[in-house]
Recover the amino acids of this structure.
């Protein structure tokens, strides 16, 4: 989820969606230059600015598990790694929390189950009775908080604020759910050794390997079951509808993206999806989710094709693209890290150029209890792909949680530690790992002390050694493809045997095993301890037993505290809107009692408030007018341009009809008709200035007619918001403001108000005409001289040969360009002036500036405009009628009663909120108790 730091302007990188400072020159993740492209960045990332009803990212819930493909493509070319990384946009695709009623039902169910809560927590949990009592107390507190959200006054809360309240409450309910399954998810880059580590944790080698690609291609759940349950592999396929929607999203993303690398990646993904659907769709895609079950005996032969991702260059149809997830049910052996009932999730390697894999990883991080973050020594902290994964962990796991909670949830494991075989390689590894702490919780290093000397903030693991040692201790035979690794394992046992003797002095002084099956159990045990896996296993078990209680309870308390604080702020906000400005509950009650004693004065306050709201509504309409007029290609701009075009077209039609031929004079006699006359047989006389004056006069008349529509559009840019406030909220409806009073001067006020609105329309036309015609009178700009190319072309007809009728026809053709010069950029040059002058006239309706003295140095004074004067008259008349009209007094008293009732409800909610914040709730009665 995105996170916006307080008091710091931030934006997001348009390439990698990384949150950066607004003044940053480069993105610290992808290295893209940001300075000088602020406009592009702002357009690409509008959600970072939190406009209008957008939800602050600090409380933003995770994105859903089915996010559009176009949100998953990173549109940039990485100079170091040619893979595409997924993109995450938090705002457009929000996870909608359950409504309060569902949350109440969930909490009520947990309260009813609280009598059997003991079995869900370790028997040896320190102070177990006290901790379970605290858990029950938080359950009751959360239910009481959820019931507050169902009160009638909460219907007045803005949807954005209600969303945040529901989110915090749903997160608290989730944290307090002691009956749900807990999952540990293993994430990391491709080739980090995640599957090997996971196999060592469960003590069974069941995962595909060495496929030449990214190996694990789907989310793989390992459910540890009891010995009495059968081991099986359950392959869950997509439904036909889900598959079709995925194909549709991919096609849309391909059409919408312009980045060549993104298009290539999406094109490949689409081809794989379509090919998989054509080949296997009839078998596995159903209207209802289809599940294929494989017993343990078929895992090796058939199971890998549902888990293993083929190599990128493979042209074979990929049935894996139709798989939603795979779940293994395996026995929790004696060496298993977790007890039966636990779930571990192996995720595809991230940042490996596989769009689907990155999407799965991001989706799975929306819902976690604990994660094992795995780094292989082939991509330490200075690898940008590793950094991207850590950045994703920071947004999904670290942000939105307290540092202590997040620090306990994340277990950082560095595999292939056996390849760190010199001081130089150790210094290099530590130097590249330390920068990764910036994406981990602030105090992560204080909670994690690992390694031989407890001086590492990560678990240094020899992953393959841990797996081989575990298999040896479980006395499992190695698969044929593990035979060579078994021999290499024996060699490593011999090479580190002095270190093993230090761990277990009871080992034989020398080791002489040549084959894997000849390594003794004690040697396997020592090698397992040397691998570093027991430390991770021990801490993980501790977290999922003792620390899990503390982490969940802390998370629930944090979310409830945030919800109650936000609810309290909402109460004060609504009380302030009702004219109560105290922030102290006792002062608030005193103020309420004082207000009730002043019922008569309150009537006049209500009248003043209602008339003042007319000023506010008028000002809001002016703001909306400014917004509309200031936008490019606004309706007034289009109407004005259309009016000018129509006027020009009208005059050009008149030109072709010959209305301006009188300014082109040509002889009508030919040489044959008068052979004796050789001089003056042909002549052309052009009255250019007369033509220009006639064109301007005709254009002015035509434009005056066409300006009606722009004037109407300009007036409606203000009058439409006014009409909305009259009809919808009634703030500018004289009758509703006067609470139904009528007759006498009130009718005159209504007539004056209607006349004022008609005057606005007339003023818009006057302004359009005044500005346009005054601009057109500027002969320097809109009266071309003889030197102008368009006029010169017309005068060239004097010396042009041809018949008189041809000369006239050519002259008509040349009058059009002259008209274009006369019109020029008249619409563009007058648009802003018209809008500003009309806005000035609207301002004068509220307040006018006048000079009362003839002295030149006298200061002006401000007087009420027509609208302000109308409101003042309305207020004066209503205050007089209060004294004589029983109906008006009853209406005002009813409003005051409603207001006081609303205030009372918010005050009561405020009291309940403060009581819950101080934890003053009754202790839960246990089921079965009296």
């Amino acid at each position: 989820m995105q996170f916006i730091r307080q008091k710091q302007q931030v934006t997001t990188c348009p390439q990698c969606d990384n949150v950066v400072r607004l003044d940053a020159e480069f993105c610290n993740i992808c290295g893209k230059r940001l300075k000088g492209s602020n406009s592009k960045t702002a357009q690409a990332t509008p959600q970072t600015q939190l406009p209008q009803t957008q939800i602050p990212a600090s409380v933003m819930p995770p994105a859903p598990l089915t996010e559009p493909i176009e949100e998953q493509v990173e549109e940039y070319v990485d100079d170091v790694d040619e893979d595409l990384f997924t993109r995450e946009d938090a705002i457009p695709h929000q996870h909608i929390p359950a409504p309060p009623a569902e949350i109440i039902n969930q909490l009520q169910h947990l309260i009813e189950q609280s009598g059997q809560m003991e079995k869900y927590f370790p028997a040896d949990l320190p102070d177990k009775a006290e901790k379970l009592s605290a858990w029950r107390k938080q359950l009751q507190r959360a239910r009481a908080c959820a019931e507050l959200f169902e009160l009638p006054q909460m219907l007045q809360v803005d949807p954005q604020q209600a969303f945040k309240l529901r989110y915090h409450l749903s997160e608290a309910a989730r944290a307090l759910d002691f009956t749900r399954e807990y999952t540990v998810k293993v994430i990391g880059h491709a080739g980090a050794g995640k599957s090997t580590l996971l196999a060592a944790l469960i003590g069974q080698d069941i995962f595909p390997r060495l496929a030449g690609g990214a190996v694990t291609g789907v989310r793989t759940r390992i459910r540890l079951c009891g010995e009495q349950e059968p081991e099986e592999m359950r392959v869950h396929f997509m439904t036909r509808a889900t598959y079709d929607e995925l194909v549709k999203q991919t096609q849309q993303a391909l059409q919408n993206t312009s980045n060549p690398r993104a298009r290539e990646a999406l094109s490949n993904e689409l081809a794989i999806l379509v090919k998989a659907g054509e080949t296997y769709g009839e078998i596995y895609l159903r209207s209802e989710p289809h599940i294929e079950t494989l017993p343990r005996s078929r895992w090796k032969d058939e199971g890998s094709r549902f888990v293993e991702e083929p190599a990128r260059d493979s042209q074979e149809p990929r049935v894996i693209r139709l798989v939603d997830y795979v779940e293994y049910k395996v026995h929790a052996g004696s060496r298993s890290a977790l007890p039966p009932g636990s779930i571990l999730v192996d995720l595809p390697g991230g940042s490996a150029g596989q769009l689907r894999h990155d999407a799965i990883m991001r989706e799975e991080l929306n819902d976690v209890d604990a994660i094992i973050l795995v780094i292989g020594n082939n991509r330490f902290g200075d690898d940008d792909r590793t950094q991207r994964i850590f950045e994703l962990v920071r947004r999904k796991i670290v942000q939105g949680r307290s540092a202590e909670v997040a620090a306990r949830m994340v277990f950082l494991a560095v595999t292939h530690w056996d390849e760190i075989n010199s001081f130089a390689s150790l210094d290099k590894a530590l130097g590249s790992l330390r920068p990764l702490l910036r994406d981990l919780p602030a105090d992560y290093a204080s909670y994690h002390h690992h390694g031989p000397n407890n001086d590492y903030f990560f678990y240094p693991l020899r992953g393959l050694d841990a797996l081989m040692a575990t298999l040896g201790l479980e006395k499992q035979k190695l698969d044929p493809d593990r035979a060579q690794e078994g021999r290499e394992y024996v060699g490593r046992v011999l090479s580190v045997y002095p270190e093993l003797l230090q761990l277990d002095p009871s080992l034989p002084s020398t080791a002489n095993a040549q084959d894997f099956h000849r390594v003794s159990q004690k040697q396997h045990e020592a090698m397992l301890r040397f691998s570093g896996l027991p430390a991770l296993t021990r801490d993980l078990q501790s977290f999922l037993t003792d620390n899990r209680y503390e982490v969940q309870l802390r998370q629930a308390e944090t979310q409830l505290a945030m919800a109650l604080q936000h609810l309290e702020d909402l109460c004060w906000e609504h009380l302030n809107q009702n004219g109560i400005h105290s922030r102290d509950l006792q002062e608030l009650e005193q103020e309420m009692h004082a207000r009730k004693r002043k019922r008569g004065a309150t009537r006049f306050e209500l009248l003043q408030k209602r008339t003042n709201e007319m000023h506010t509504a008028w000002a809001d309409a002016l703001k909306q007018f400014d917004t509309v007029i200031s936008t490019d290609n606004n309706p007034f701009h289009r109407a004005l341009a259309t009016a000018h075009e129509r006027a020009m077209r009208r005059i050009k039609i008149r030109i072709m009809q010959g209305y301006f031929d009188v300014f082109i004079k040509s002889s009508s006699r030919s040489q044959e008709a008068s052979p004796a006359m050789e001089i003056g047989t042909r002549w052309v006389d052009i009255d250019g200035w007369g033509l220009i004056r006639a064109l301007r006069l005709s254009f002015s008349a035509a434009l005056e007619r066409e300006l009606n529509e722009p004037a109407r559009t300009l007036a409606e840019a203000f009058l439409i918001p006014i009409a909305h406030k009259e009809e919808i909220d009634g703030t500018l409806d004289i009758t509703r403001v006067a609470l139904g009073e009528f007759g006498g001067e009130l009718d005159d006020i209504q007539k004056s108000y209607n006349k004022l609105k008609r005057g606005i329309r007339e003023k818009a036309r006057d302004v359009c005409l005044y500005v346009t015609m005054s601009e057109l009178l500027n002969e320097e700009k809109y009266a071309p001289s003889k030197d102008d190319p368009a006029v010169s072309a017309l005068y060239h007809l004097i010396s042009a040969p041809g018949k008189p009728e041809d000369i006239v026809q050519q002259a008509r053709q040349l009058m059009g360009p002259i008209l274009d010069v006369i019109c020029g950029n008249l619409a563009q040059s007058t648009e802003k002036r018209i809008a500003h002058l009309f806005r000035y006239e609207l301002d004068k309706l509220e307040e006018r500036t006048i000079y009362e003295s003839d002295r030149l140095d006298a200061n002006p004074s401000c007087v009420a405009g027509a609208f302000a004067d109308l409101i003042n008259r309305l207020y004066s008349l209503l205050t007089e009628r209060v004294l004589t009209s029983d109906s008006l007094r009853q209406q005002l008293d009813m409003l005051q009663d409603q207001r006081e009732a609303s205030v009372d409800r918010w005050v009561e909610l405020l009291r309940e909120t403060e009581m819950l914040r101080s934890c003053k709730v009754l202790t839960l009665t246990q089921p079965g108790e009296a």
